[in-house]
Each structure stands twice: as structure tokens, then as C-alpha cells.
Amino acid sequence: MSIVLLAFPNAPKVSQEAIQKEGELDDRLERRIGEIVNTSEPGEVDLAYIMHVLCYEEIEGLPPGGGLVSKRQTIEEILHRLCPNTRPDDEDSEQNANGEDSW
Question: What is the pLDDT of residue 94?
């Protein structure tokens, strides 16, 4: 499947406020993931575990319509930065056996 985006000269631009809010959300996620990693048993933390814990929390600033799922890539990057030894599960890293996203 392909998509073509056209941006006309008078199209709205990305606001600095939106960029700042996105950065603040990423910082909140990084702090919370760090807390989860530090309070969990070694070997217990993986992407599925982090997503499971976070899905039950009210996280301010998640994108409307996408929520936590839309931040999955960011969460995965943060997790690998904090725990370089974690590997994505085959089932959770891309798609499950049914070809559907796990999150």
C-alpha cells in the first residue's frame, strides 16, 4: 500500500507548541519506563510488559485517537536505550502470527 502526501505552500505548519508537548510526553514516558525497569525483576522487562503496565495508567498528553499505541516505537526505543540487553519478542516486535499488530 502506498500513500502520496501533497503539501501546498499555504498548508498549516507544525506548531512549536506541538513539538514541545511531544518532547515533554517523551520525557514523561522515559521517566516512567525507567521506574518500571528499576522496580522490576531482571529478565521480567520486555516491550510487552512495559506496554501492559503503561496501558493501565493515565498518561497525560497521549495523542488523541492513537493513544499509547501511537507511541509504541518511542517506547521501544526508550526501553532499548535503558536496557540494551532486551530483545524484542518475535510476537511483539512487528506483527503477530495473524499479521496484526500486537499493540
Answer: 46
Q: Identify the pLDDT of residue 7.
A: 82
12 occurs within a structural domain: no
**Contact at 8 Å (CB) between 46 and 89?**
yes
Domain that holds residue 45: 19-82
Answer yes or no: pTM beyond 0.85.
no
- Between helix 16-39 and helix 47-55 the angle, nearest 10°, is 110
Any residues with CB less than 8 A from the CB of 89 and at least 6 apart, and which?
46, 47, 48
CATH of the domain at 40: 1.10.10.430
Question: Does pLDDT of 74 surpass 90?
Answer: yes
Does the residue 88 lie in any domain?
no
The CA angle 62-36-63, to the nearest 5 degrees, is 5
In a domain, 32, yes or no: yes
Average pLDDT over every residue of 14-36: 95
